[in-house]
Write a structure and sequence with these properties.
Elements (H helix, E strand, L loop, with lengths): L7 E7 L5 E5 L4 H19 L6 E7 L13 H14 L3 E8 H9 L7 H4 L7 H30 L11
Amino acid sequence: MIEKQLHGSVYVALGPGMQVYDISTEGIGEAGFRQFIDSIQHASIRKRGVPILTFGRYDMEDMRGLHFTSGQDKTRYLLECLGPAIQHDKGTLVQMTDTVSLYYCCRHDIDPLSDEGQNVRLRQDFRQTEAVFRSQVRKLQTMRRAAEQLREIRKDEPYKRKGLKI
């Protein structure tokens, strides 16, 4: 009997409108997926932004030609490398989660990649948590825009401020 080996994993983060936010081929399996999600979460915290993302983990039979490097165009990689490999049955989508589910799991002390964590969207109180999360994200975005506007005002020459004291 020939044993099928896991040769690698590809991790994808998609934003609204299926825009490619990030891709990684670092690590293998669930451990690599956790690292991928954590790295995006930590980067978001440092930037003080909370992107609404969907995360996917693809386990690939053959990683030849699929290793992603930071200089590559992410959308092109998805369309020209990963997409065809999946169509030719060289890879399988194994796990998916999203930012709101991660937030819910964190609040309820659930491992987001466990069976329970993968099914949190089915819980009755999930919609309420999702509404709270989205509300907080909107507030953060509003605050960020206000801070950017304030920086722009401060850059203006004094005579353009029209009496504004900052």
